[in-house]
Amino acid sequence: MTPAARAQAAIELLDQIAAGKPAEQALTSWGRASRYAGSKDRAAVRDLVFDVLRCWRSSAVAGGGESGRARLLGALRLRGEDPDTVFTGLGHAPSPLSTEEQAAGRPLDVNEAMDLPDWLAERFRKSLDDRAESTAEALRHRADVFLRVNLLRGDLGAAIAQLAGEGIAAEPHELSPTALRVTEGARKVNRSHAYTQGLVELQDAASQAVVDLMPLSAGQSVLDFCAGGGGKALAMAARMQGGPVFAHDAAPRRMVDLPARAARAGADIRLVHDPRGPFDLVLCDVPCSGSGSWRRAPEGKWRLTEDRLAELCRIQAEIMDQASQMVAPGGVLGFATCSVLHEENADQVSAFLDRTPGWKIEAQRQWLPSDGGDGFFAAVLRRGDD
Asked: Which of 69, 110, 243, 327 could cross-link with 331 by S-S, CB 3.0 to 4.6 Å?
């Protein structure tokens, strides 16, 4: 496919997404139906689609409309690229721009430039003060690819060397002592021996930092209460010289790949469907808005509503209350989100302490995209010796 043909494919996919089809579903269906598209074509089309999704609002304003065509036009203008090199009408390229399209578009206002709905822009300012606009700007761009070095299989030096031998360049990152930022060859990671043999795992650097904040040591009884795919459970097991770590999720299907990942990593992960405790540490990486990770899942900021945010905050409080009952006296409740919003983070912790006597904060930290990784929040809450 030519670059212009890829642009036309992206336009058609953006129209499907605007009509309500999830981006991943639309891309998967297109890939299956487009046998002529090679792996590089599929990757390039995906990048085009996600670049527009991150700038969904601003691209529509700059392009003068809400169609996929207008949004791609706007995205090109925002990047300073000449649209006439794409909208040529040659072969499978988008048709040339009309006079009206050439004249369409206008400068962005402040919320449009942040690429947030107005209500969310206000939430960002309330939560982040003078870092609101820089955080929103970071979320308009692609995220780096990070790896976690599995210390059960080797160290950073061994991982960097093995990756380099497979055409993947990576460097240490300051957010975590186990974090590597991939600087070249990111698309090769999943096929590399370093990955398939368990030396490295794909995991954001700030997500690793959340685990670093937890007071972990070998011999503890530890539960990952909202395990999902199990990235934090695996990271905790590595900190504990292999585990065991008990893993639970309200939707067990999310953990379907975890046993194979644990075997590859040399970690002892035990799936539990009805955990009772007591545990020395219970980590709750709760469902949230995902506002700190919208670089990777940009649909989230356009599909989130105020009602859904309120529902998520209610669910988070319920999970904290439930999980806290499984913490042993003197033990720890770890609370984490990939959100940058106060109502999901510090406000949740304060509300929990207000309604639950006998607990205190030992540590609390917010990471923002400007720190290098995704936006994350974590708190370490210690239960009294009752």
From this structure: 327
